[in-house]
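Good day; I would like, with your permission, to put a structural problem before you. The record follows directly beneath this note:
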Amino acid sequence: MVIERHRTKIDVTTHFTFVAMTPQMTVEEITLLASEDFIIALFCMIDESMGAAYERHAQGSLYPSELQTLGVLFALKGIGERAFYQWLERDYRHLFPRLPERTRLFRILERYCGRCANFMAPPTIFGVADSYGIELIHPMREGRSPKQIGRKGISNHRWIVGGKLAVVLNKFGLVCDWDIETANTPDNVFQDSLVKQYEEIMIVMTDSHFWKQTDNCSNIKPCKRGTWNVRMVVETVFSLLDNVCSLKNVAHRSWNRLVMRLAYTMAAFNICMLWQGITPDENGFVPLSLVPFRL
């Protein structure tokens, strides 16, 4: 199955039922969980949130909730496919006794990664959008392979060869939607694929790079440098994804596998944030932490 460059659009009117089903735990309680207990609790929450909407294929060896759990674990582990499968088979094969062979497992995860849309957060009145560069190969290796999927672009004031991830966050810092393009794509391209669907629903604050000369969305608010510093929540999210999920440098050699990795990473981020609870302080700030979920 070929995964399109732009994912299936999410119905922004649906409710995020996973919020109500997630037990809230403190960071200290999460940190004390053993890895096996964490995997079991993660599976239980995912299975409860997915419900009976998806059924196991007649010839499939894994249930949909098991596949979703494995995809989230792969995103949180932040390593390659071979290393992840070796870690899973060595330490936790007893939790997944019908685990298929490595290449078949990742083909299945690639096929059903669209189900991660069920774990996207609902929009709020205010939101933030920004882009994030993902390096696939070193710039010196550009053009050596005819199967190269990344393109050369600038990220954080330096050249990379890879892709560009764009996300839309709600006021709590949860991912509402995301998109991926090559690194040479301008940010304003994401205005049509991400921001426009939230017209009359959410005001999206961005930097000036998302602004187009003509035909801009009515709900986009470009902010100058040094203003509306609440937008820094998106930088916190990118930092967490880099430090825990190692998302800044990935080694996927096909576009479909890159989309799969990002889909499960966005779902994993929302699941982990809701696991510890959304509790704003007296100033309305929601502390975000992904370190207790590091495997």
Remarks:
- DSSP finds nine helices and six strands in the chain.
- Residues 126-251 form one domain.
- The first helix runs from residue 18 to 21.
